[in-house]
């Protein structure tokens, strides 16, 4: 007897999956905004700030990049109440994912900032550009161009990594899948559906990133950094 | 862009076609008693990580009610037991995929689940109770209005609490019973719908003076079944027979008493 | 059995960490072999093969690891291949490793300037000899830093195989917490062990990448 795929019981509960997918988008969207903000502050703090600040941010980065997100989640959600800080599951998930992304994006953005030589900024100023123009055209856009593949790769990993938040009762896509699986016992069908939704979301976002990249960098591009630097940046992403 | 999207959709289509084809084409193993005897061992998926039903020692070895039960099943089949630890998320897949021959994993035989697997007569039961802080009044279900209640994701507790229809009650779902209990202890939820034996065990062992099992709210007893694949009817019959015999011979009750410290709740086990 | 957090618990966790290390090593070896094949085929293979591999990589990189492990582990069982949890876990994590490491290594091979191929060709080396003596040694050097960096990801990501019943460090932490209900102690210790394993590798990885921040200011 051949194994019969039967999607009907899963399809009957499909609205739960879509609700979960929506929550995944909200959850990772909020984490991404917060995480990038942390990353910007962290990167500027590390490059421009005093030595102690560089050290402090460096410690934060290493702590979060060298422990699994799941363990960070457990500590924030179940551990913090022991020192009197109680968070809802979704809040804990957003904070954990944001702190995690913050650590990775700090390093990615820092690499971008450091790739812009000081002399280039001085040259911009000498050309009579205003400070704002220099920051925009000489620092941000070229730096972003260098780190764009790594940064968008990291954002994709964040979207996918938010699936781990299901362990602490956040109500996102993987949690919705797990619940349907437990109700119907149609495990393979459920997780195939979940996978397809994740793939669809990721591809949509990759397309959006590609469009944004096109808009941002359509002007005559600065010399592309070497492929070796590229690899080194891309290998910095993770969860 | 054009070639890019084409490439992606082509790749997507191919991969899924291949995956689907492989999955449909492969026969699931029919588990007759003969096949198990010939193989010389039976692979049993056992739920772990829920004390007092099972415990893990410092060396990582699992022991407990379900493990002993699984070993006894194998002994009565006259073969060796291979115990595969499963959890709530993986148990169905483990059976469906043929990774295990059967599951003894705290599963209540709901009609919905029984459409996918053959569920045996119950081998055990649990009382579902609400557990909350002592100072939280809980005399009737409506006292839960506006409260946050934790449950194991997709469990029968989940179905029950979600189905009560209490206004403003928020169901908070965790991966397993212990995490749902942890959420109460950490104060993330107001109450948890728990297996009474699990809750009592936790309260006693961890000296949780301010938490109690609420006894006023009427709640039901639910039964646990073993599960086999749809086509393993012979094994299913045998297991029903085994469960009946272990109950009347008293060995099932003794085993439950040994690990959980109480007789199986609900009196005589039902059959269906 | 364990009732509250103490030395016995730490021992239990360290045992879990041993499994994490073993599993990471296995994953790296299996995944690394496939990754090398993928990287080579994707740079040198015929076009259909290149496209198929690129498509596969795109798909897997768009799926959460949890789901990949789930589908590949039970997928193997569905096609009748039953492995002990250790091997099954290693194989399903290898799928993920292959895809990411394959991508990194492809980049390293492509980073070797075209002139190197041409020079090797001019020396009348065969394709295999060009790879063996000219390209791969250089690519290997470039890849060291990123590869060690990715090993940190492997170690951390082995935590998802808890799903398929394998007791490694994170699952050991969960089981321990189910027995002691002291999550702060348990998971802080778990985090500390992960850090002790991963930080030296991260450090080494940055060292191997060298002073990549210094770029010519032309």
UniProtKB/TrEMBL annotation, chain A:
<keyword id="KW-1133">Transmembrane helix</keyword>
<dbReference type="GO" id="GO:0006865">
    <property type="term" value="P:amino acid transport"/>
</dbReference>
<dbReference type="GO" id="GO:0022857">
    <property type="term" value="F:transmembrane transporter activity"/>
</dbReference>
<feature type="transmembrane region" description="Helical">
    <location>
        <begin position="134"/>
        <end position="151"/>
    </location>
</feature>
<dbReference type="GO" id="GO:0043190">
    <property type="term" value="C:ATP-binding cassette (ABC) transporter complex"/>
</dbReference>
<feature type="transmembrane region" description="Helical">
    <location>
        <begin position="20"/>
        <end position="45"/>
    </location>
</feature>
<dbReference type="InterPro" id="IPR000515">
    <property type="entry name" value="MetI-like"/>
</dbReference>
<dbReference type="InterPro" id="IPR043429">
    <property type="entry name" value="ArtM/GltK/GlnP/TcyL/YhdX-like"/>
</dbReference>
<feature type="transmembrane region" description="Helical">
    <location>
        <begin position="66"/>
        <end position="85"/>
    </location>
</feature>
<dbReference type="Pfam" id="PF00528">
    <property type="entry name" value="BPD_transp_1"/>
</dbReference>
<feature type="domain" description="ABC transmembrane type-1">
    <location>
        <begin position="21"/>
        <end position="209"/>
    </location>
</feature>
<keyword id="KW-0813">Transport</keyword>
<feature type="transmembrane region" description="Helical">
    <location>
        <begin position="91"/>
        <end position="113"/>
    </location>
</feature>
<comment type="similarity">
    <text>Belongs to the binding-protein-dependent transport system permease family. HisMQ subfamily.</text>
</comment>
<keyword id="KW-0472">Membrane</keyword>
<feature type="transmembrane region" description="Helical">
    <location>
        <begin position="195"/>
        <end position="217"/>
    </location>
</feature>
<keyword id="KW-1003">Cell membrane</keyword>
<dbReference type="InterPro" id="IPR010065">
    <property type="entry name" value="AA_ABC_transptr_permease_3TM"/>
</dbReference>
<keyword id="KW-0812">Transmembrane</keyword>
<protein>
    <submittedName>
        <fullName>ABC transporter permease</fullName>
    </submittedName>
</protein>
<dbReference type="InterPro" id="IPR035906">
    <property type="entry name" value="MetI-like_sf"/>
</dbReference>
TrEMBL record, chain C:
<dbReference type="InterPro" id="IPR043429">
    <property type="entry name" value="ArtM/GltK/GlnP/TcyL/YhdX-like"/>
</dbReference>
<feature type="transmembrane region" description="Helical">
    <location>
        <begin position="20"/>
        <end position="41"/>
    </location>
</feature>
<keyword id="KW-1133">Transmembrane helix</keyword>
<protein>
    <submittedName>
        <fullName>Amino acid ABC transporter permease</fullName>
    </submittedName>
</protein>
<keyword id="KW-0472">Membrane</keyword>
<keyword id="KW-1003">Cell membrane</keyword>
<feature type="domain" description="ABC transmembrane type-1">
    <location>
        <begin position="17"/>
        <end position="205"/>
    </location>
</feature>
<dbReference type="InterPro" id="IPR035906">
    <property type="entry name" value="MetI-like_sf"/>
</dbReference>
<keyword id="KW-0812">Transmembrane</keyword>
<keyword id="KW-0813">Transport</keyword>
<dbReference type="Pfam" id="PF00528">
    <property type="entry name" value="BPD_transp_1"/>
</dbReference>
<feature type="transmembrane region" description="Helical">
    <location>
        <begin position="184"/>
        <end position="205"/>
    </location>
</feature>
<dbReference type="GO" id="GO:0043190">
    <property type="term" value="C:ATP-binding cassette (ABC) transporter complex"/>
</dbReference>
<dbReference type="GO" id="GO:0006865">
    <property type="term" value="P:amino acid transport"/>
</dbReference>
<dbReference type="InterPro" id="IPR010065">
    <property type="entry name" value="AA_ABC_transptr_permease_3TM"/>
</dbReference>
<feature type="transmembrane region" description="Helical">
    <location>
        <begin position="53"/>
        <end position="74"/>
    </location>
</feature>
<feature type="transmembrane region" description="Helical">
    <location>
        <begin position="142"/>
        <end position="164"/>
    </location>
</feature>
<dbReference type="InterPro" id="IPR000515">
    <property type="entry name" value="MetI-like"/>
</dbReference>
<feature type="transmembrane region" description="Helical">
    <location>
        <begin position="86"/>
        <end position="105"/>
    </location>
</feature>
<dbReference type="GO" id="GO:0022857">
    <property type="term" value="F:transmembrane transporter activity"/>
</dbReference>
<comment type="similarity">
    <text>Belongs to the binding-protein-dependent transport system permease family. HisMQ subfamily.</text>
</comment>
């Amino acid at each position: 007897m051949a194994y019969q795929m039967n999607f009907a019981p899963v399809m009957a509960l499909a609205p739960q999956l879509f609700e979960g997918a929506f929550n995944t988008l909200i959850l990772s969207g909020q984490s991404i905004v917060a995480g990038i903000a942390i990353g910007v502050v962290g990167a500027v703090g590390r490059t421009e700030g005093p030595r102690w600040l560089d050290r402090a941010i460096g410690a934060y980065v290493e702590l979060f990049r060298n422990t699994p997100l799941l363990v960070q989640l457990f500590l924030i959600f179940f551990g913090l109440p022991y020192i009197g800080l109680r968070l809802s599951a979704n809040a804990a998930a957003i904070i954990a994912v944001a702190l995690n992304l913050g650590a990775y994006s700090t390093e990615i953005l820092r690499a971008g900032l450091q790739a812009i030589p000081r002399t280039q900024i001085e040259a911009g100023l000498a050309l009579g550009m205003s400070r704002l123009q220099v920051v925009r055209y000489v620092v941000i856009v070229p730096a972003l161009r260098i780190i764009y593949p790594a940064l968008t790769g990291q954002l994709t990993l964040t979207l996918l990594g938010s699936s781990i938040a299901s362990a602490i009762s956040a109500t996102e896509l993987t949690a919705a899948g797990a619940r349907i699986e437990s109700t119907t016992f149609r495990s393979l069908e459920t997780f195939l559906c979940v996978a397809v939704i994740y793939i669809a979301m990721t591809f949509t976002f990759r397309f959006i990133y590609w469009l944004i990249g096109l808009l941002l960098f359509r002007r005559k591009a600065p010399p592309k950094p070497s492929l070796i630097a590229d690899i080194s940046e891309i290998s910095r992403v993770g969860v | 862009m054009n070639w890019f999207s084409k490439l992606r959709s082509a790749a997507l289509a191919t991969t899924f076609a291949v995956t689907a084809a492989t999955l449909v084409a492969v026969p699931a193993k029919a588990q007759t008693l003969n096949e198990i005897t010939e193989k010389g061992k039976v692979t049993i998926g056992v739920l772990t990580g829920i004390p007092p039903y099972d415990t893990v020692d410092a060396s990582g070895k699992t022991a407990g009610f379900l493990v002993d039960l699984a070993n006894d099943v194998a002994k009565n089949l006259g073969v060796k037991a291979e115990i595969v630890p499963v959890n709530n998320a993986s148990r169905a897949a483990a059976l469906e995929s043929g990774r295990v021959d059967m599951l003894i994993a705290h599963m209540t035989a709901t009609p919905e689940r029984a459409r996918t697997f053959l569920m045996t007569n119950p081998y055990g039961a649990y009382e579902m109770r609400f557990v909350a802080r002592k100072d939280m009044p809980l005399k009737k279900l409506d006292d839960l209005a506006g409260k946050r209640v934790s449950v194991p994701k997709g469990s029968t507790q989940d179905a029950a609490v979600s189905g009560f229809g209490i206004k403003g009650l928020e169901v908070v779902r965790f991966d397993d019973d212990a995490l749902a209990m942890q959420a109460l202890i950490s104060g993330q939820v107001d109450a948890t719908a728990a297996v009474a034996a699990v809750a009592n065990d936790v309260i006693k062992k961890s000296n949780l003076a301010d938490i109690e099992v609420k006894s006023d709210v009427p709640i039901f007893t639910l039964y646990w079944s073993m599960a086999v694949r749809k086509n393993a009817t012979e094994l299913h019959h045998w297991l029903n027979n085994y469960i009946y015999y272990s109950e009347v011979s008293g060995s099932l009750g003794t085993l439950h008493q040994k690990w959980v410290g109480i007789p199986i709740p609900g009196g005589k086990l039902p059959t269906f | 059995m364990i009732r509250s957090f103490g030395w016995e618990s730490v021992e239990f966790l360290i045992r879990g960490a041993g499994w994490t290390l073993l599993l990471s090593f296995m994953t790296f070896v299996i995944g690394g072999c496939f990754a090398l094949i993928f990287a080579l085929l994707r740079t040198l293979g015929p076009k259909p093969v290149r496209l198929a591999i690129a498509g596969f990589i795109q798909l897997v990189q768009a799926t959460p690891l949890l789901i990949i492990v789930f589908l590949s582990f039970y997928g193997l069982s569905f096609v009748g291949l039953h492995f002990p949890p250790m091997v099954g876990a290693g194989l399903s994590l290898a799928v993920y490793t292959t895809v990411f490491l394959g991508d990194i290594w492809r980049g390293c091979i492509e980073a070797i300037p075209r002139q190197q191929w041409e020079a090797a060709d001019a020396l009348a080396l065969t394709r295999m000899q060009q790879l063996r003596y000219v390209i791969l040694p250089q690519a290997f050097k470039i890849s060291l830093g990123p590869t060690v960096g990715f090993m940190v990801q492997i170690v951390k990501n082995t935590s998802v195989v808890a799903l398929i019943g394998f007791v490694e460090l994170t699952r050991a932490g969960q089981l321990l917490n189910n027995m002691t209900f002291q999550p702060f102690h348990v998971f802080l210790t778990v985090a500390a062990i992960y850090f002790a394993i991963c930080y030296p590798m991260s450090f080494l990885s940055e060292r191997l990448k060298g002073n990549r921040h210094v770029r010519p200011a032309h």
